[in-house]
Write a structure and sequence with these properties.
The protein is of the alpha/beta class. The strands form two sheets. It has a five-stranded parallel beta sheet with strand order 1-2-3-4-5. α4 links the parallel β4 and β5.
Length: 259
């Protein structure tokens, strides 16, 4: 694992440490890193998502990383990204706003359904097939926008219902990822946090569908930037389900997402 594109900053209100500390942790292990903090969202009626940076923080986020990118240019390659929720009613406004800044890539991370407000969380355990279907359809619609470098923790949806229903919808999601050439992320935060993901049922399907995969540290602390224990478990999943891990050094340079 020579590149990691999934790291957060203090602006999302649930990460700690400074960007410099993350970079210092990364230098001895990676050739390329990218910050992809939770994107601000142009919510209506004064709603605030406390797990994302504010709209007025994006400029500081970009400016800070640009300065560090220049400072460390002889030691490590640094890129500026965002982890984005696809909320259909807000997406175009967000894209228009993001276009004002030198954002180099976006990763899809669908933590909530619909347009966020009064909608189900992807983390909440559910036996309702309608919620699973809504998650999959929303993520497929997102991938069809052609804006995402890869899909972070695609197996985050915490469906505990019928296995055949799960397999049916996740097969559709994996087929759409292949169609749009969107790699799927094995997420290390899920591993080290013992969360409901990575879900082996999902990765079995992804292997059968010959999906491309990538690893993501999903670092919210400097200690998580290099995570060899989770890397080992991620590699076990790749071997067990015959997953096709991509060359992460090349993924950003070959992507057409923001070009």
């Amino acid at each position: 694992m020579l590149a990691n594109y999934h790291m957060h900053t203090w602006r999302c209100n649930h990460a700690t440490g400074t960007e410099r500390e993350y970079i210092e942790q990364a230098i001895d292990h990676y050739q390329i890193i990218g910050f992809s903090d939770h994107t601000p969202q142009p919510f209506k009626n004064g709603f605030v998502d406390k797990d994302k940076m504010r709209m007025d923080q994006l400029e500081d986020y970009v400016t800070t990383i640009l300065k560090l990118k220049e400072e460390y240019k002889d030691q490590i390659e640094i890129h500026i990204g965002l982890e984005v929720e696809y909320y259909p009613a807000l997406f175009q406004e967000l894209m228009d706003y993001v276009a004002k800044f030198p954002i180099e890539y976006m990763i899809l991370g669908q933590h909530w359904l619909g347009n966020r407000v009064n909608e189900p969380s992807s983390f909440a355990p559910t036996e309702d097939p309608a919620i699973l279907e809504k998650y999959v359809r929303q993520c497929i619609e997102a991938m069809h926008k052609g804006k995402f470098l890869y899909f972070a923790h695609p197996d985050v949806i915490n469906f505990i219902g019928n296995d055949e229903v799960y397999d049916y919808w996740m097969q559709k999601l994996c087929q759409a990822a292949n169609e749009k050439k969107v790699p799927l992320e094995i997420n290390f935060l899920g591993i080290r946090g013992n969360r409901n993901y990575p879900n082996e049922k999902f990765w079995k399907i992804a292997g059968e569908e010959k999906c491309k995969v990538i690893f993501g540290a999903d670092a919210h602390r400097k200690e998580d930037v290099w995570d060899p224990a989770s890397l080992e478990k991620g590699e076990e999943l790749v071997r067990k389900y015959h997953l096709q891990k991509i060359n992460e050094l090349e993924v950003l340079h070959t992507s057409q997402t923001l070009k």
